[in-house]
Amino acid sequence: MFEFDQYLGFLAFLTILTIGFWLMIFLAGIIPYWIGGALIEKFKLKREAKKAAQEA
Q1: Is residue 23 assigned to a domain?
Q2: Total count of domains within the chain
Q3: How many angstroms separate the CA atoms of 32 and 9, rounded?
């Protein structure tokens, strides 16, 4: 059976593992969204600059 310090170590391991898992899920969801938004914004700015250049 586990001793108390082994039990605390096991709980610390599970906590770190769980935090790492949720951080990975969070980053896997946020980073593509962030990159996609940045690309869309870049395309909009290019399109506006092109439209302004044609009007001038």
Answers
A1: yes
A2: 1
A3: 35
pTM exceeding the 0.90 threshold for the entire prediction: no
CA atoms within 13 A on the CB side of 33: 6
Contact 2, 10 (CB under 8 A): yes
Say how far apart CA 45 and CA 53 lie, in whole Å. 12
pLDDT digits (tens, 9 = 90+) for 5-41: 999 999 999 999 999 999 999 999 999 999 999 999 9
Query: Quick check: is 1 in a domain?
Result: yes
Q: Is residue 49 part of a domain?
A: no
Residue 20 lies in a domain: yes
